[in-house]
Amino acid sequence: MNNNQCNLCPNLCKIDKELKKGACGTDSKIRIAKFYLHPFEEPIISGTKGSGTIFFCGCSLKCVFCQNFELSRNLRGKEISVNELADIFKKLEDEGAHNINLVNPTHYSNKIIEALKIYRPNIPIVYNTHGYENIEIIEQLNYYVDVYLPDVKYFSPAIAKRYTGKENYFEVASKAVSFMIDSKPLIFDNNGLIRQGVVVRHLVLPQCTSDSKKILDWYANIKDKAYINVMSQYTPFGELESFPELKRKITRREYDTVMDYAIALGIEKMFYQEFESADEKYIPKWDY
Ligand code: SF4
Fold first, then answer.
1. 30-282 CATH choice from 3.40.50.880, 3.20.20.70, 3.90.45.10, 3.40.50.300
2. Residues whose beta carbon lies within 6 Å of some atom of ligand 1
3. What's the pLDDT tens digit per position in 41-100?
4. Which residues contact 89 (CB under 8 A, 6 or more apart)?
């Protein structure tokens, strides 16, 4: 990245983050909300000891219903240096983490590469993203990242626009995720934990089963090269006065409709959630 022209995500703010904040809400300083051994990722990621998860503040997508809005929008967290980030990688590795899991890292990807040049753990690096990614930046990250954990959230430009303001979400995310899948074939260790590969995540939203089915139609063409997690955990959060359809959890019928469709498409490398997963207990308590 040219420091004067931030292009770390498709928002392409082209600003100097040393001088001002971009659409992601962040400047050149790293802010994190928490790091710990996270037990609730997919079993091939959390394993028995947990995933060494670092939650970054700010967000370049900003969905209206974000369950992590305190950090994504309000930047609740603590400023750290690149050296301190490298120290956190080491600390989590020493605590027994199966991997280093970078949650919402897009707008810090240049700093993350700097930290990985200082200390590169001997465990996989997991890039846990909303999927709205600039492929040129993913190409730069590819040497350092072992596992991608991208969301594919919306198919319809109208829905993406309504919930994020980014009409081109699917066009951008589908290209980025296809690139990730092509560049990281699945590899597992002897304990069944992922060492390299992609786990796509799709959160089923209220009144959006048709949109979920279109995403699965797209995913069916690449279904054997990666895993997908079809998630039921949507929980209403944030200022939803203008989005009345989002003020409820999904119904069991909505989730079953999407899961049945995935099964009918022959998608086998798939995770699903217990329907009761729509519970605030799965949302971490923020430390800073
Ligand atoms: S990372 Fe932030 S400043 Fe850079 S292009 Fe994206 S939104 Fe803009």
1. 3.20.20.70
2. 6-9, 11-13, 15, 17, 22-24, 60, 107
3. 999 999 999 999 999 999 999 999 999 888 998 899 999 999 999 999 999 999 999 999
4. 52, 100, 115, 116, 119, 120, 121
